[in-house]
Design a protein that fits this description.
The structure holds two protein chains of two kinds. Helices cover 51% and strands 3% of the residues of chain A. Chain A has helices spanning 2-22, 38-51, 53-56, 72-78, 83-93, 104-117, 131-134; strands spanning 29-30, 137-138. The relative contact order of chain A is 0.21. By secondary structure, chain B is mainly β. Chain B has two domains: 1-30; 31-683, Quinoprotein alcohol dehydrogenase-like superfamily (Methanol Dehydrogenase, Chain A, 8 Propeller). Helix content of chain B is 6%, strand content 28%. In chain B, a hairpin with a 4-residue loop joins strand 7 (147-152) and strand 8. Chain B is globular, with a radius of gyration of 24 Å. Classes of the chains: A mainly alpha, B mainly beta.
């Protein structure tokens, strides 16, 4: 019986290591790595203007009712967090009067537009639509020295 | 005698039960707030935000740790990111408002354990309210036997609760509620459900009278020159019966009606008291800080000085009758609402004892008066100011400008105020500023033109100087402590109003931009809000920065200590870490820049026996701390920073303090950006830990 338990425990450990190695993180990514496409940002702009601009401003610079979505204070708020956190803030609480009304795709497109206005570079692949995957992309205010 | 003895005995038994079983520090004595408690929004009815506590001091502030915390996400049907409350702590229980429902919660002040919760589901009426979310707090009242909690819902109903249970008190108003949209000497239009009027500040209770003001939507782009009026009322705390009303816009035949020419008092609205009210219970006087009349930046439809707009009014606590008034700004055109609680200060000027009232302001002046007579302590002469040329506008040729103390924050814009870290940055700032009309305090708005000016560039207006958190005051040393935004720049331009937007001739806007109705903080954000209309007008906001750097030079935000015996500064410091965007700017590499403070308008201060305590309202990431904000402590005598403790998000409500079972706590509301509302209580580590 004891031997059976030992074998079971060993196989559990092996399987745990196996799954760990299968989930080994790909190269860590940040908003400086081209995590959205220009096309996606273009799709996001009219959604932003329709759903968000009356409070956050058509240039994302905020107003009396809502904070800016660009500039120093905004970037400082999110620095060190992930795009998953920002995506969830939008997905769960915006638009303020009808939270959760936009689809995941619309939210991702708005987020892409927001990244483009904040001058983070576009790339070849569109943003994920799942917050768990977006949590793998860091929001970093400062451009890493190695990035061009 | 016997029945009354039995009654007393029963009461004693009940109290003892409560003492031993539930709330250890409840007593049956007549209610006299203690120095260790925080019984009203600003600590006391004098608006001081002062407690003479010193367990937490310069030697140990850095050791503070979190005693308890409570997220407010579930006190409403959506989380809130704008938690502005200051809790009360009386008789061993902490009370506060919380969440998008503006729930009232009672907590154990040592552990944060939830004792009870009360919420009002107001449906469409709550969803249409002009001032939603959790508000700034509530009021406590006791006659030594009963304890009551009073607050105003987003839908503008005054609710009276049993402080022990959180249940409504049926004998107050109608089943514990007074509909504040009724019995207001006006018919709230268009109807009770959607009629624009509400309030977000905490009620004040003084000598059994509850005093309630009124607030409205933001007034930069109103849909009409007509609006509901923001009268102030007193109610009996026992019954909810209206005792008095003060007409902040005089009715025909009342004093000041003639300051509204062409009958404009009849239709002009707003002019409420949306911030905290101060009371001198001994003198029986109430001090009302009144806001702007309808249309913040265009007054062409309300010619005249417009009493009691932007006026400090003293009324009788029992009758609401006006005793004296002083209009800070004639014919208001700059959104210089009197935005914070007047501060009562017993001072000694040139050897003379004076019961004074000091009024902080957005325009950075501290107006100081004898609070019995209304006479300025130091002269406040009428000075000529620029008269503008906006068609149809009416201008006051003079404004009252205090000679003492000096302005404690900027209230005008000149080239000399612009960023000057490098000559190149100054030149870039000049290019932006030259598109606008510049000038000192009370430089009037202009019509916005593409060829220039786009408007008047102002400081010390809508978000400048001291806003709703107000100041603090040390009654022992006679020093006032005032946070001020020194860089909250506001371009004020006017455009012809499209008739489908507003019936005013001019509203705030910028030439070349589509006109929009600007929304106020919390409007349409609370529980039960309705979905937005499909058509969305665009914003007129123009960024006024240089690659993220503020257009004006530091300090961006300050705390100033002012000796009220002398009317002089004791010290002034930049409050808040230098923003990331400045510290990390490529444009400033190689420069050594002293701490700049932050461009925020909503920082509240707390004064204790030895410290001035205030958090940061902006987040930074530095070598010393991860992304977050710091709750800072200054030596109140010198302004020297003596400690700082980490908060996970910005301070969004003013800090308060109390002592329970010999331990001092500091509680502060934290929220903003990614961080949803949370009250955090700090205390010192227990001995031996």
């Amino acid at each position: 019986m004891r031997q059976a338990l030992l074998i079971a425990a060993l196989s559990a450990m092996v399987s745990a290591f196996g799954s760990l190695s299968a989930q080994a993180p790909a190269e860590s990514r940040s908003v400086w790595d081209g995590v959205y496409t220009e096309e996606q940002a273009k799709r996001g702009e009219p959604i932003y203007q329709k759903e968000c601009a009356s409070c956050h401003g058509d240039m994302l610079t905020g107003g009396e009712s809502a904070p800016p979505l660009t500039g120093g204070a905004f970037q400082a708020n999110w620095n060190g967090l992930t795009l998953g956190d920002l995506f969830d803030r939008i997905r769960k609480t915006m638009p303020q009067r009808a939270p959760g009304r936009l689809t995941r795709q619309q939210n991702a497109d708005v987020l892409a537009f927001l990244l483009s206005v904040n001058k983070f570079p576009a790339g070849k692949a569109e943003l994920y639509r799942q917050s768990e995957m977006l949590k793998e992309i860091r929001f970093e205010t400062k451009k890493p020295a190695t990035k061009n | 005698m016997f029945p009354s003895e039995v009654k007393s005995a029963s009461l004693l038994t009940v109290c003892l039960l409560i003492v031993f079983l539930l709330l250890p520090s409840v007593t049956c004595a007549q209610f006299h707030p203690k120095d260790t408690e925080w019984p009203s929004y600003a600590a006391d009815l004098a608006g001081t935000r002062y407690r003479p506590l010193d367990q937490i001091n310069a030697s140990n502030f850095n050791e503070l740790e979190i005693a308890w915390r409570i997220k407010t996400d579930n006190f409403g049907d959506r989380p809130e990111y704008k938690l502005e409350g200051t809790p009360l702590m009386v008789n061993g229980v902490l009370y506060t408002t919380a969440g998008s429902r503006r729930a009232v919660i009672a907590l154990d002040p040592e552990t944060g354990e939830l004792l009870w919760i009360h919420g009002e589901r107001e449906g469409k009426r709550g969803g249409a309210a002009p001032r939603q979310l959790s508000g700034r707090g509530l009021a406590y009242w006791s006659d030594g036997k009963e304890e009551r909690i009073l607050y105003v819902t987003p839908g503008f109903r005054l609710i009276c609760l049993d402080a022990k249970t959180g249940m409504r008190i049926p004998s107050f108003g109608r089943d514990g509620a007074v509909d504040l949209k009724l019995n207001d000497d006006q018919d709230i239009f268009p109807d009770l459900e959607t009629g624009e009027i509400g309030i977000q500040s905490a009620p004040v209770v003084a000598k059994d009278t509850v005093i309630i003001g009124a607030a409205f939507r933001e007034g930069m782009t109103p849909r009409s020159m007509r609006n509901n009026k923001g009268y102030v009322r007193g109610f009996d705390v026992r019954t909810g019966k209206r005792l008095w009303i003060f007409h902040t816009i005089p009715k025909k035949g009342e004093f000041g009606y003639d300051t509204w020419e062409k009958g404009s008092a009849e239709y002009t609205g707003n002019t409420g008291v949306w911030t905290q009210i101060t009371v001198d219970e001994q003198l029986g006087l109430v001090y009302l800080p009144v806001e702007s009349p309808t249309s913040d930046f265009y007054g062409g439809h309300r010619p005249g000085n417009n009493l009691f707009g932007e006026t400090l009014v003293c009324v009788d606590l029992k009758t609401g009758q006006r005793k004296w008034h002083f209009q800070l700004v004639h014919h208001p055109l700059w959104d210089m609402d009197i935005s914070s609680a007047p501060i009562l200060a017993d001072i000694t000027v040139d050897g003379r004892l004076i019961k004074a009232v000091a009024q902080p302001s957005k325009q950075g002046f501290l107006y100081v008066f004898d609070r019995v007579t209304g006479k300025p302590i130091w002269p406040i002469p009428e000075r000529p100011v620029e008269v503008g040329d906006v068609p149809g506008e009416w201008y006051s040729p003079t404004q009252p400008i205090p000679t003492k103390p000096p302005a404690y924050s900027r209230n005008g814009v000149s080239i000399d105020d612009l960023i000057d870290f490098t000559p190149l940055l100054r030149e870039r700032a000049k290019e932006i500023a030259e598109k606008y009309h510049l000038g000192p305090v009370y430089t009037p708005p202009t019509v916005s033109k593409l060829e220039r000016p786009l408007g008047t560039l102002t400081l010390g207006t809508a978000s400048g100087g001291t806003n709703w958190p107000g100041g603090s005051y040390d009654p022992e040393t006679h020093v006032a402590y005032l946070y001020a935004c020194n860089s909250c720049i506001e371009p004020i331009g006017l455009v012809l109003s499209p008739k489908e937007i507003s019936d005013l001739d001019y509203i705030a806007g910028t030439a070349g931009k589509e006109v929009e109705i600007l929304r106020g903080p919390g409007e349409n954000a609370g529980a039960d809000s309705q979905p937005p209309p499909k058509k969305r007008p665009r914003s007129q906001w123009v960024p006024l920065n240089i690659d993220g750097l503020p257009l004006v030079k530091p300090p961006y935000g300050t705390i100033t200590a002012i000796n009220l015996d002398k009317g002089e500064f004791v010290w002034q410091v930049a409050h808040g870490e230098t923003p990331d965007v400045v510290r990390n700017s490529d444009l400033l590499q190689g420069l050594t820049i002293p701490r700049t403070g932050q461009e925020t308008y909503n920082v509240g201060t707390l004064v204790t026996k030895s410290l001035v305590i205030a958090g940061e309202a902006q987040v930074t990431t530095t070598a010393d701390h991860p992304r977050g904000a710091m709750l800072r402590a200054y030596d109140k005598a010198t302004g020297k920073e003596v400690g700082a403790v980490y908060m996970p998000g910005p301070q969004s409500g003013s800090p308060m303090t109390y002592v329970v079972h010999g331990k001092q706590y500091i509680v502060v509301a934290v929220s903003g950006g990614p961080y949803s509302g949370e009250y955090i209580a700090y205390t010192l580590p227990s001995e031996g830990e």
